[in-house]
Amino acid sequence: MGKALILDAVRTPRGRGKAGKGSLSAIHPQELLAQTLDAVVQRAGVAAAAVDDVVVGSVSQVGEQGANIARNAVLAAGWPQEVSGVSLNRFCGSGLQAIAMAAYGAASGFQQLIVAGGVESMSRVPMGSDGGGQDGNNTRLRERVFQIPQGISADLIATREGFTRAELDAFAVDSHRKATIAVEQGRFTRALVPVVDPATGQVVLTRDELVRPDTSLAGLAKLAPSFVELGKLPVTPDGRTLDQIALAQFPDTSRIDHLHTAGNSSPLTDGAAAVLIGSEEFARAHGIRPRAVIKSIATIGSDPVLMLTAPAPVSRKALQQAGMQVGDIDLWEINEAFAAVVLETTRSLGVDPERVNVNGGAIALGHPLGATGAMLLGTVVDELERRDLATGLVTMCIGGGQGIAVIVERV
């Protein structure tokens, strides 16, 4: 088997994902993605016609993000009609899964050049717009496995792990601190694609707009927990609440302490990303020096009620595939869907916190669902180069109880 090489990676700035308020909310998601497609091939110096396929992750595939957004973004970019596109959904892991599929094609030799990435416009296509919820509204499935909302799962993890509200808030403050430094020092500059309004030609966003440099423990402490009332909601014919359903799976836990707030959870976000994946043969033939090689890719299923604990076991699986240990990884990107997810993963694996999310994460920067995985992969490659380090691991929790991890090594 050959190797899957990362030739380049770009992303839009992350915009606030609220209609009429975020800087990207006026941009159709197809156009948002199309701008990253153009940028990644232009920066790598390859022709769009050479691309074998475009693989795109998007979670809410309905309305403006429906109808195979990958293919429509190819057309919106004005690429040759021969370039194909496919869209996929692995919930929050969609962008990283798109990269995995591209890597499979390049490493197997069936494809030579693939663009992989993701897009999510949460201002224009709000989370849950497809109407499927967590389980497709299958009442028979709920009799077997009742998948509670992720926020309640995050609170359940925090409760069982003994994390305090103060610890979760402190993690959030640190995310904003690190992201502020990264923005001020221009650490994201190489990857960023300024977003242009296709109707006017005006640049609408050049930098991530969700980072709050003034975030403080005192400020976060004033925020009310987000999932208290949701946990009290009766959802079964016999009147059981979501909290009761969750606790029934864990007799050793007597209550759920609702600790996650809007301040220590990831905010609604708009954004798109594209990563150029090539085979060794393509890179050699075109004189392209790859930036990194994909060492391993792993996915795993986990408890569908606790739901968000898969990053640790899937990281172990990826490390085993690569013949590596936790200490062999120089930089970790663990998606900050909720503060407790990163704290639990870091503790479970025994990772040095100084190696985790060194430029902040989704709590500060935002989490545009289908795009985040591709953004994180580009971020870790950029930072490995900046620090002259070798290896990085990106991992994400996924709704329904799944995890994904990708290990990269600089070339």
TrEMBL record:
Residues 289-410 form the Thiolase C-terminal domain. It comes from Nannocystis radixulma. This is Acetyl-CoA C-acetyltransferase. Belongs to the thiolase-like superfamily. Thiolase family. Residues 5-231 form the Thiolase N-terminal domain. Keywords: Acyltransferase, Transferase. The keyword Acyltransferase applies. It comes from the Bacteria. One of its GO terms (molecular function) is acetyl-CoA C-acetyltransferase activity. InterPro entries: Thiolase, Thiolase-like, Thiolase_AS, Thiolase_C, Thiolase_CS, Thiolase_N. Its EC number is 2.3.1.9. PROSITE patterns: THIOLASE_2, THIOLASE_3. The keyword Transferase applies. It is an enzyme of class 2 (transferase).
